[in-house]
Records
---
Amino acid sequence: MSLARLIDQWFADPAYLNMTLRLLAALAVGGAIGLERSYHGRPAGFRTHALVCLSTSLLMLVTIYENRWFPGLTQGRVALDPTRMAQGIMTGIGFLGAGTIMKEGPTVRGLTTAASIWITAAIGVLIGIGFYYPALVATILTLGTLSVFRWVETRMPAQFYAHFTIRFRRSATMPEGPMREQLSQMGFTVANLNYRLDAAADFFEYRMVVRTSHMDNLRRLADALATLDSVREFRISPTGD
């Protein structure tokens, strides 16, 4: 049977169109929620939400259309439940995906990799039971999410967050008011401000989360702080996926 004929048969069946629409809807909804999270600079953003929503929708097709990949399940008494195997697989894959999530200081990385492992396992389940059409659609959508969505994510407007720590000599500490004003002039807003005084080491420290609409402001801030003699040490750690 030729590929063209096989494709014609697929699209002649309304169920295949229904599967495609469900997967596309899941991708769109997950992506929309992820856009909001990406805009606010959260580690689990655009692609992560899209992949998780797509993978869960894909696995639900296994149950909804079980009569297509195993007609015997709908004939009288059910003696076999292959979905139990899928549940065990996805539970184990969850632990594997968790191992790819790394916390580097205040930054969390690897969430999109974990989501891609999860949906790859879901696609493998569908191929294993012979449910090829949704597996093919999911593969195409996954590759598009990991490539095209990355391009979209890098060009969409977003807020950038960073953990900011700065230490002054105790005798030359910049007051909080002027410090906030200087950060504001450079395009930052401040949240979760903490203070630390170490008399033995003779320094006063501010620790906070800063937010900006332009990533270049982080570099400008670092350049400005490097010229201040009163600054003993500073650290700017952008958050990200």
Note: The mean pLDDT is 79.
---
Amino acid sequence: MNKVLSIIKDLNPFSNKKVDNKIIYTLKILLSAFIVYFASLIIAEGIIIGGSYLFRYNATDKQMPYDIMLLCTFYGYLITILLFVLFTKKINKIELNKIGLDKNIKTFLKGILIGIVSLSLIIISLLMCGAIKFNGINNNIYWLFFVLYLFGYLIQSFMEELICRGYLLHRLKEKIPVVLAITISVLFFSVGHFDKMFVDGTLIGIIGIINLLLISLIFVVITLKNKNIYGAIGFHFIWNFALFNIIGLNLSGIESSTSIFQIEVVNKFLTGYSYGIESSFITTIILIIILLLTKRNVRI
């Protein structure tokens, strides 16, 4: 009985008691991440639902317009970011550089550059093989939504990288082998993207999972190389924002509604069907090349 109580105390995510057992330490970090994340979602949902009534909408029965609902979700992630920062400083009592938040913000621009190169290679390849067709510029862009999406995707990318490459990867590799820490952080990130992958068949779903694991590993490599998460945030942000609001192709199964370019899908298989290019084998090839290039001089 005493041993069970001791394990429960060690697993307490709000305790700063030193835990030497690697399994219990890993479970404690995962438990704390789940608690903080879901607590933030509950708070954000409450704010969104309450706020929707002020504008005579009912967020619980999908009365809110699609773009507004999506943007509310993105900006609600500010709560998640705030809670993880407070949890790290006030509960864990450790400095933010221990979860990848140092002062070297310039790596953010490097991540954006890698993301632009990666997306450009994929889009050029799709254009060259006739999988997509460029139909001109959209002259009916709602620029307010465009700007709101710009900052919304920055917040969303910051939140996901803070949890997966920041909190989980950095905290776990303190006590367990870095390869295992990487595996856990990659799986944690990937699981949340599985729901729409198999809508268009098993093959598309499998390609999507492979690409998701590849891009997760790229984020990890960039994080380990820079010793912070800003580069991964930059890549993640520009990938999501450019794909959704500039190029105008589906992003993880979400259909774009406000984009600069008008792109017509000609070959659904090569463009990943409804999930988008993240389930395209052309993306697989490009991501493997990017991973091999970014992994140079990085020891794992």
Note: The beta strands are 132-137, 261-265.
---
Amino acid sequence: MSYTKEIINYLKQTHKFVNIFLVPGFEPVVREDNGEFKKIIDIKLTEKDTKEILLTLRNSASIPKTLAVKEIFSFGIPEIGRIRVSYFLQRGSYVLNIVKTPFIIPEPIDIFVDIGKFLDFYNKFSKDNFGIFLILGSRWLANSMFVYSLLKLINKNQKKIICTLENPISFLLRHGNSIIIQRDITVDTDSKEEAIKDMYFLDPDIVFYGSSSLSENLNELEYLDMHRINIISFPFSSYEVFEEKLKSSTSDYFLRTFKQHLRNIIIVQIEHLKDLKEKITFEVLNI
């Protein structure tokens, strides 16, 4: 029996970013924002189950049925979002990670504790033509929500070329007054360096470079063009931690250049409200 239908039905139930793990011998689980696992189906998957799910998903992406040792592919489902599937072999059985990127970006008023403070930041940000805006915070998805709320307003109110390079893409932006180019680094390009170089053929006004990983060596940042607006996001808890990682990954010259162009450091946090909802707070550290 294939459980693909149950998994797709789960994806339909929420407009949020979703991260699902399918491992033989374990129940299908989604990883919550707090790191906890939540079961999707109360049944342990077999090796046959994960293979059948994988084949069904690859068929949805119009990919030939011959399976590889490892692979990443993506496809869209109307009214649900963009689906990215990565898989690999583990002792002869397939392990899958399914990431859903929603089409709908939450409205700022729904996610910020102080919407006035966010709009003030947007108004100041929208007047800049170049510089680095560094988004840090231990919750990667919260960082992404901050950035995409900003990009959503820019897309609505300004005529810009906006390029995003992420691993993985956290939200999908549609063209508004701005032209939107979004690339998933692990799907759309062979390397991060290539993704950054390709982007400059478009001469973008704003570049968003974001990653969900703490294991990055950050040397790819040396390929960024500093003479435009660069929004950079990593799930580091503080600037001190980020700076140490940057020192160990890049040249002294780049570190000096980076600091010269660094305009703001934004530290994003999650605040737990009395009604059990989570909203975003942030602090802007001027350089």
Note: Residues 160 and 176 are 10 Å apart (CA to CA).
---
Amino acid sequence: MAWDFRTTLDSRHGPIAFWTIGSGPAVLLVHGWEGTHADLDAFVAPLLARGMSAVALDLPAHGESAGTTATLTECAETVAALGTRIAALAGAIAHSAGCPSTAIALERGLQAQRVALIATPERYDRYVRWFAGEAGVDGDALLATMRARGLHAGSLVLPETAARLDVPALIVHSTDDRTCDVRGARAVAAAWRGSTFLEVDGLGHSRILRDPAVVERVVEFVTGRAEK
């Protein structure tokens, strides 16, 4: 994807890289753990075709952004700061760990008219244990390290955050997602007042970002072209 501009946002972690393209109302794209802004490139052309602009960042310690470590709350802080920089967001599209980061940012004042959460985890501690297993690291040890840094992953439960939000939301999840169980996404959708839940099959945790039907449905929702 050929983005128009690469810019940086000053943060306590160092420079945070973000990219923009288009000139219409802005939609923020938030990637997941160990991802980059490019993970959501499939949404850009459809957004531009609808007269929108797109803004995508690399979260702290990811891609071209500064930092060597990052927590979920630090990612949420960065998302909220970028939202303030942009000032008026028509919408936000988030994937995986970018979903709770965006939800927490909304709770802390991020302004967005609509949000779409794709392949969202329900509980951060479960996500950390899955990530540790994939990386060959002891999950309990990783959680203990996080607690030592002041982050109690068990206290970050997305349905509890969702219950305090009233931003129109579309939650999309594939039944065969092995990273984040679909039952967790159902719980998030049940807690988020007025949200719409779209359940698909056969798209896993990452392929879902490139599925044309999912991309179309998400873009329609965040641009206000589809009924909830």
Note: The mean pLDDT is 87.
